[in-house]
Predict the structure of Eclosion hormone.
Amino acid sequence: MASKSFVIVAFFLFTIVFGSIDFVNAEPSMVVGYDPMEICIENCAQCKKMLGSWFDGPLCAESCIRNRGRFMPDCEDFASIAPFLIKI
């Protein structure tokens, strides 16, 4: 009988504890300062390192500044870096 009452009490404690926990929105911008323009320029630099003379890094950085970091170039996504590729 003691084990049955223990299970019931444990169940109620479990529901009270986990029912009162508020889930956290885990955004990195909440922990550290997230500057989209800085990330955009870092992505441009990374693409320049990966693609070398095929990639126009300064044009990419100017685009980041002009668009205030709303456009994020992805070195593995051709559509996002196509405006910055140079024919050699």
Notes: The CA atoms of residues 57 and 80 lie 13 Å apart. The longest helix spans residues 2-20.
